[in-house]
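Allow me, if you will, to draw on your knowledge of protein folds for a short while. A protein sequence and the structure tokens that stand for its backbone fold form the material at issue. I would ask you to consider whether the tokens describe a fold that such a sequence might reasonably adopt. Thank you for your consideration; the sequence and its tokens are set out here:
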Amino acid sequence: MFPMRFSPNLNRRDIHLLLTHLPLSIILNVRMDKGNFQLAVRNSRSAQSGSQFSRRDFLKLTALGLGGLSLSPYLHASPARAALDIPEFPKADLLGRVAQGMAEVKSRPDLDSQTVATLYEDTVFPWLSEVPGEKPAYVFNNQKWVKMPDGYIYGPLIQPVHNRPNQPVSSLQKTSLGPGMWVEVTVPYVDVALQNDPSSHSWVEARTEEGRPIRLYYGQVFWVDTIKKNKDGQVIYRVNPNFYGGVDMMWAAAEAFRPIHEDDLIPIHPEVLDKRVVVDVTYQTLVCLEGDQEVYFCRVSTGAKYNASGEVVDNWSTPIGEHTISRKFISLQMSGGTTGAGYDLPGIGWVTIFANGGVALHSTVWHNNFGDAMSHGCVNMLPEDAKWVFRWSLPNVPYDPGMVDATLTGQASTKVEVIEG
């Protein structure tokens, strides 16, 4: 065992990076003692990486500021990568990303089974299969578990992702918004570099103050308005995280983004005008109907009934009744709520607003708990589900400018009925 003690000057970002860059199998104990961060690790051979981790390796890691050497079998395998390079993720058709906080790996799909490891936020691992739990877990309806190489993880905590890097483009098309293109993130995550200091009271400022890296995630959608090469010859895109505001502009590796083309927006069944969306808040489902025929079904997460303290919160409920789609956006930054219970979310794709207060159908990348009420009133959906409904419903959205407001244009709009089944 190697006991390691660090100076009180080690900040939260350093500790976060250290814990997420070490193989979980070698961590014995983590604790704070009189302001000092202490970590105990074992000198053992990692089953996944097959490499010895020595005191020399550990000291090398800390000497590089915790960011130059990456040893976790699930994260970055490159020993020295440029700041904007895409991490080397596991090679698998389907991957899982820990979407929030931490997740325990169990020996069986059962909360009472042995904990074999703990994975922290943004850990990426091979998603082998999805299985039902052996008995009910937590208070959720969702009882799906993800099988991974070391065991099983409760599914609602894990975002299903792919690692599909792209060939960078060299030029941008002319639009009414200036040169630019819509893009979607197609890798588990990508780190970014801010162009300027974070804007006040923003998600960027919050993550910076918490010592967490600024990242964009699989399935998010953004507007890119500039292409250039950095000093290493790497092609990078300037990403506008809120599209209209133009603040918190950031640069990221071009390979992380797939350009969205006009063909991606081709309407589905445009000849059909009798369309209706039905959201059931009891069963947490969404169906698309053409007349009386169901053409699409998916599970969703509507407005949460309880807050983090277990108190009933009626103001988060998705409004019951018949509504009409008013506005649609290819991407939107969505924020709201109060201090301690607020949210500020960039790059929300395929936004279909249907009720007062900005209540919308939209893609979701921060949880996988579809089938349970989770939102602040909107209807959370998997990105692929949100995109399908976006293309199918009326009014249709042009690539340029990437949004439509039916209250101004007077275009026909699809009805959205929210029911309690």
User: Anything to note?
Assistant: The first strand starts at residue 2 and ends at 6. The helical segments are 12-20, 55-63, 203-209, 383-392, 406-409. Residues 2-63 form one domain.
